[in-house]
Amino acid sequence: MQKTIFRIEKMDCPSEEQMVRMKLQGFTEIESLGFDIPNRKLTVFHRGEKDHILSSLEELNLNTSILSSNETDESLNAGTHSEERNLLWIVLAINFSFFGIEILTGFIAGSMGLVADSLDMLADAVVYGMALLAVGTTAAKKKNIAKFAGYFQIALAIIGINEVIRRFIGIEEIPDFLTMIIVSVFALTANVTCLYLLQKSKSKEAHMQASMIFTSNDVIINAGVIVAGILVNLLNSAYPDLIIGTVVFIIVARGAYRILQLAK
Fold first, then answer.
1. Which of 30, 172, 228, 258 is the most buried (most CB within 10 A)?
2. Other CB atoms within 10 A of residue 121 CB
């Protein structure tokens, strides 16, 4: 058995992990994969030469190189841990629920920050959902799901950015800052709860570590919307809401682009 460790410079979130998994799914010579996202490393246990695997990874344009390759008797546990799966289902459910809450209250309050944050929640739910697909799901089905999710998110992001531009140019009512702050506080609480549950699991598995990084970023975005709500009130201006909305819409569009790479 060969153990080859790859350095993947642009693998910094679950989206890239899914890209790699789907790219290597059809390789019968691969026994198991181990992801270390914080350190951007991929460990592959395989039979035969490593060059074919490297060539496929290079097609993802994630800046891949080989760190080491040697014979080994060790292996990775490729089994599914039910407790971790259950925990990820909980995180997915929380993200999807707050997508619905934030997009509804965002339109009611006239806040682009809340609408954008809701799409970020949706992006998270999509990534977790793809990671939790049944092991027996075919590669073609996974790619179709990824394609639908990616186009759906990027369409919403484009609509959102156009709406932000329209509001920058036109004269719009100032969003309801109190709704912005209250809903964002609840969303922040939900994400902090997710982060606590993920950290409490003390799992060293790559996908769990990646989920913690993803959720930590959500906490920062939630805090940004809260700050924007406060500035809307203090400055009596819609600009802080439009600025945070633009930033988050760009983040969502970038995530959607990554998901679309899964469909290639």
1. 228
2. 27
